[in-house]
Amino acid sequence: MHQALLYQKLAGNYVRCGICRWRCKIAQGSCGVCHMYRNQAGELFNLNYGLASSVAVDPIEKKPLYHFYPGSRVFSLGSWGCNFHCPGCQNWSIACVDSTAVESQSEKISPEEAVRLTKQNGCAGIAWTYNEPTMWFEYTLDSAKLARQNGLYTVYVTNGYMTSEVLDMIGPYLDAWRVDIKGFTGDYYRRLTKITHWEGILETAERAKKKWGMHVEVVTNITPGQNDDDVQLKGIANWIKTKLGELTPWHVTRFYPQYQEQDIPATPIETLEKAIKIGNETGLRFIYTGNVPGHDGENTYCYCCGKLIIQKQGYNTQILGLNNDRCGFCGADLNFRRGKL
């Protein structure tokens, strides 16, 4: 166990966790919603510090991040638990778990070892991914500091539901914020995740970009009959343009039956193309399809001259027309982040 950095001691040996926006009030001997933070004798401890469930060398495009160090490889680490328990979760086997079996099924990787493995495998950076990274926040913070000292980029692949205190603690050491915006109504978020203050996810994403200068990309996994209506898709597109900027990439990805939603069919391609049309009409410059290998919506085109800038076939990335962060043909700003940190 590793002592948590953000919590408040309460009367009766209760504690108030400060890691995510649930702000769980936890009795002695109990865990919060995520199952990864436990009250032990009136103090809060993280249960999975350095305990990895998943380790891989990935193309950065798999996160998905399309405008951040394109073509690079990233050392990807996942752990256990989540503060959401979505019924269609694709990583439910590591996200929806109890804390009791975690240690015996984990690979122990210290922050120093993570940095060493990143370099050994020829990766340009580290991503905390596969499950919600704030579930082992203290570990990601220590690792991000060390990664920055070693000239590596850092990525959070997140549902965005952490507190502003957590963001501000790790903000100086994070370079990219790949956030899920699952829908755009309180009703949808309540049905999906049980949370009530879903707007906090939007506030945190804005803060990541504007206060900490992170590169931000947004993913919406479109599920038939749930978040595929025009109201939600237009809401997300308008928010991205207004709060994050028209050059912010929006990935509209195809749902496949998973976990407790085996009875829901895969998203029709026409629905993703409808979302692309909505994004274009809103004024977004970069909308990408996900989970549809070979679709033209994987490629990057310059919104100004129309030239093909990056061609993708699955995770095979061919850079055809980039000059730093700009179009190599006409010079338009394409909102890419590359080169030295």
Radius of gyration over all CA atoms, rounded: 20 Å
Helix content: 10-25%
Strands, total number: 21
Strand content: 15-25%
CATH class of the largest domain: Alpha Beta
Q: Uncertain segments of ≥5 residues (pLDDT<50)?
A: none
Sequence of strands across the biggest β-sheet: 8-9-11-12-13-14-15-16
- Counting helices, strands and paired strands, the structural category is alpha/beta
Name given to the CATH architecture of the largest domain: Alpha-Beta Barrel
Calculate the terminal CA-CA distance, rounded to whole Å.
Answer: 33 Å
Count of alpha and pi helical runs: 8
List the domain count as a whole number. Answer: 3
CATH superfamily of the largest domain: Aldolase class I
The run of helices and strands is EEEEEEEEEHEHEHEHEHHEHEHEEEEEE
What fold name goes in the CATH topology slot of the largest domain?
Answer: TIM Barrel
Polypeptide structure, described:
It is a single chain. By secondary structure, this protein is α/β, with parallel strands linked by helices. The protein has eight helices and 21 strands. A hairpin with a 2-residue loop joins strand 5 and strand 6. Helix 2 (111-120) packs across helix 3 (137-149) and helix 7 (230-244) packs across helix 8 (269-282). The chain starts with a strand and ends in a 14-residue tail after the last strand. 45% of the residues are buried. The mean pLDDT is 96.
Q: Which terms would index this structure?
A:
8-stranded mixed sheet; 3-stranded antiparallel sheet; 21 strands; globular; TIM Barrel; 24% helix; 341 residues
